[in-house]
Each structure stands twice: as structure tokens, then as C-alpha cells.
Amino acid sequence: xxxxxxxxxxxxxxxxxxxxxxxxxxxxxxxxxxxxxxxxxxxxxxxxxxxxxxxxxxxxxxxxxxxxxxxxxxxxxxxxxxxxxxxxxxxxxxxxxxxxxxxxxxxxxxxxxxxxxxxxxxxxxxxxxxxxxxxxxxxxxxxxxxxxxxxxxxxxxxxxxxxxxxxxxxxxxxxxxxxxxxxxxxxxxxxxxxxxxxxxxxxxxxxxxxxxxxxxxxxxxxxxxxxxxxxxxxxxxxxxxxxxxxxxxxxxxxxxxxxxxxxxxxxxxxxxxxxxxxxxxxxxxxxxxxxxxxxxxxxxxxxxxxxxxxxxxxxxxxxxxxxxxxxxxxxxxxxxxxxxxxxxxxxxxxxxxxxxxxxxxxxxxxxxxxxxxxxxxxxxxxxxxxxxxxxxxxxxxxxxxxxxxxxxxxxxxxxxxxxxxxxxxxxxxxxxxxxxxxxxxxxxxxxxxxxxxxxxxxxxxxxxxxxxxxxxxxxxxxxxx
Length: 481
Ligand SMILES: C[S@@+](CC[C@H](N)C(=O)[O-])C[C@H]1O[C@@H](n2cnc3c(N)ncnc32)[C@H](O)[C@@H]1O
Description:
By secondary structure, this protein is α/β, with parallel strands linked by helices. It contains 21 helices and 16 strands. Strands 3-2-1-4-5-7-6 form a seven-stranded mixed beta sheet. Strands 11-8-12 form a three-stranded antiparallel beta sheet. The protein has a two-stranded antiparallel sheet with strand order 9-10. The protein has four domains: 22-157 and 234-301, Rossmann fold (3-Layer(aba) Sandwich), CATH 3.40.50.150; 163-227, no CATH class; 325-402; 415-480, no CATH class. The chain has helices at 26-35, 58-66, 79-92, 104-108, 129-142, 163-175, 180-194, 200-204, 206-217, 220-227, 237-246, 262-265, 268-275, 280-291, 316-324, 352-362, 369-376, 383-395, 419-430, 451-461, 470-474, and strands spanning 48-52, 71-76, 97-101, 115-120, 143-154, 250-254, 295-301, 327-329, 340-343, 346-349, 367-368, 400-402, 415-416, 436-440, 445-449, 479-480. 43% of the residues lie in helices and 16% in strands. Bound molecules: S-adenosylmethionine. This is Methyltransferase domain-containing protein. One of its GO terms (molecular function) is methyltransferase activity.
């Protein structure tokens, strides 16, 4: 293909949408890996973090504000992405991110320190084998011992019926005129004209018709990055395990937290069929088939003591102790913790008295898992079951991993938020349509705050005689000392 052809490499004449991903927080990744048996990271001390293909680096800039003692690096070859990322960092006053306007291949040549975290979201399925090789070399050379890698990608079998739609879209876009964005819109319009039941592909694959309807509602910049790169590869999870093993990494768990708990995903028949398979590799692959998975957020660890490619393991007593040492809390209003919770395979119910006691614990802010188990474990309750319930509540999104334990009383006369939090609150208050992600050192990432709550927080900081928004005080965004 010619160099001027917009489809000759990674789409760069259109920017990717500015998105925040909670799974990229060091605290979240630490939780996912500890759940899988890895040793916890000390997030209270200095650490290094690299975001490969950072786009607007929204999550990384906010995470850097939430971990001022961490050193963050963000790399992307698109100058418009890096420029926007630098602007956000400057607006929030975040100084602990080094930006690299560079390809991964060029980054390989740079003298970089070892990283405790290397993340890539929305990259691995959208770059070709040469770029994946550069990524693998970066991981092999630049990941610290016991460092964690996050990689998300499209996986089979969930794409098996839709993959031909992408080929059709690419060919239609190549035949259209204009910018990549307008070609994406033309291709979708053309596919809609074809996507009727007289075309047997659409009739025989009803989910493809649904996918087409969803695509028609998606912004063209997203569609261009998702489908119009030269490379578009849907991977099998076990192949990614093999590729990561070449860089010395073992599978540690999933940052889609529910995926770490088969009970939340599989009915009894599927669970029994998978359990009967002869090895962990087959069970890993079969689970993708059981849930028809199409996207994975895998976490890998450089485990110098483990066997390459296999799940990192700690003795069970150590693994339990590590898990109990992690902090969890509730980012929503505590009163909204309900006895009935949505899980991937349906819903799950908890006893009313357990939920009442849990709400009271969560009012304190973030609490060690072991402390909640001990606190709720009296009155003949089974501690193992309580631990399990807490992990299920985190997996279902009712509770969240936190970076630290604690909470703040916002009662003192000196009212404050960190400069980065105050700037993000101002962004949120200015935009009634989109919540801003406000950094919280307690949470270890950004907290979605809407315009009204942000405006209240700013009035409280300015000294108005009023209560602070209690959620923001509980979650450490607002402090009265
Ligand atoms: C789909 S976007 C994801 C952006 C961001 N991680 C997110 O999820 O919001 C993929 C990003 O990878 C970058 N990219 C693709 N190939 C690259 C390469 N070889 N070197 C550096 N960056 C690359 C693109 O410019 C783009 O910003």
C-alpha cells in the first residue's frame, strides 16, 4: 500500500475518543493479580508505570494525580494524542508523567528504567505482528521483577460471526472518499443498505444485525480506530498466554474482575464440563467458549519463581493473607448497596443483615478486607463465606479495590482538595453532560463526579456554610483539617 493510503498502518488522521478506564489503576491491577495468587505491590512507596498506546492518557494522568509518589510514563505515536495528554496534565497540575511521542519500536531504543506496571488498553488487537514483537521486547527488557502487565484485546470465539463484517467495512471504507472519519461513516451507511434479511449472512447471524445497529450509533472516530487499521486481529486467550510467556510472563488474572470468579459466570453444567478438562490451559480456553467471550483484560506477572506461562502461585495461606491485606470500599452512595446484585449470569442475593452491617462498615471509607471479615464475622457467620461475598461484591462492581485504607472526616475548619482534584472538580462543574474523573489518593484512581456534586464541593471549599458532599469526603477527595 502507498504511504499516503490512510489504511496503510495505524489510523492517525483522526484522534481516538477521550476515554477513562478504571481498570488501569495500579490499585485495581494489584487487586486482580493478588486474587490470582501474585504478591501484592507496595503502592504506598515509589513505583514506575508505563502506558503503551496511551491515546489521550486520560486514565494515566488521573492515576498519576492519585499516586503523586509514582512515576508515570505514557507513549503514543500520534502527536495530537500526546499534545492533548500534556494539556490535561498541565490543567490538573500533574508533574509526574513523562510523555513519549514515539512508536513502541522507537521507545525500545530509549534508556528507560524498569517498570512495575506496563499497561496497554485497546492496542494489542489493532497492531500488526511486528508491533506486537516490539511490545514483547519492551516487556522482556523493561518490566521489573514481579512487575504487572495489563493487556486488553478482542478474543475468540465471541467475534466469530461478526469478524466478516469488519472485512466488509474495511473494503467499503477503502472504496469511499474523504477523511478516514467520513469513510467510516460512508462504510456504515453502505453496510446498513446491505444489512437486510435478503442477505443470508445477516439473516443467519441475527447478532450481526444487532452489531450493525449499534455501529450506526457509534461515533465515527471510534469506528475508525476500532475497525479501519491495517491490522485487526482477534486472538485466542491461550495464544496470548504463549506470546506473553516468550517475554517471561505468567497469567495472573483478569482486570474484568468478575472473570476471576467462575461461579459468577457459569451455570453448573458448564462448570462441571470445564472442571472435567485435563489441564488449566484447556480450562482457560473452554471458559471463553462457555461465555462466548469477545474481549479480555488480562493481567500478567513477571514471576521469577513460577513456571513460565502458568498462573503465578503463592502458598494458599500467604495468598489469603495478601488478599485480606487489600483495601476495598464503595465509590457510590453506601445506601445504594442492595441485597440483590447483578452478576454476569444473572443475579445474586445476599442476606439483609449482612448488607446492613456492610453498609455501616463502608461508611468509614476504605477498609482492609481482613478487618471487614473480622468485623462482620461474629454472630455465627462463616468467615470464608463473608470473604467470598465481599469478593463477589467487588467483582460485581458494588464495591471497589482501593489504594489505601481510611477515610477522612471533613469537619475541620481548613477545607481543601488536592490541586488536581480541585481542577478536575472545576472541569466537571463546567460541563453538565460529562462527569469528570476526580483523582482520589484513597481510591488510587479517578472518581466519576457529576456537575452538581462538583459544584457543591467547590462551594464548600470556598467556605460556604454547608455540609460537604459526604461521598467526596468519605472517599478522600475533600478534606477538612
Ligand atoms: C485504540 S487507541 C487506545 C488509546 C488508549 N489506550 C485508550 O484506551 O483510550 C490505540 C492507541 O495506540 C497508538 N498506537 C498504535 N500503534 C502504535 C505504535 N506502534 N507505537 C505507539 N503507539 C501506537 C495509537 O496512536 C492509539 O492512540
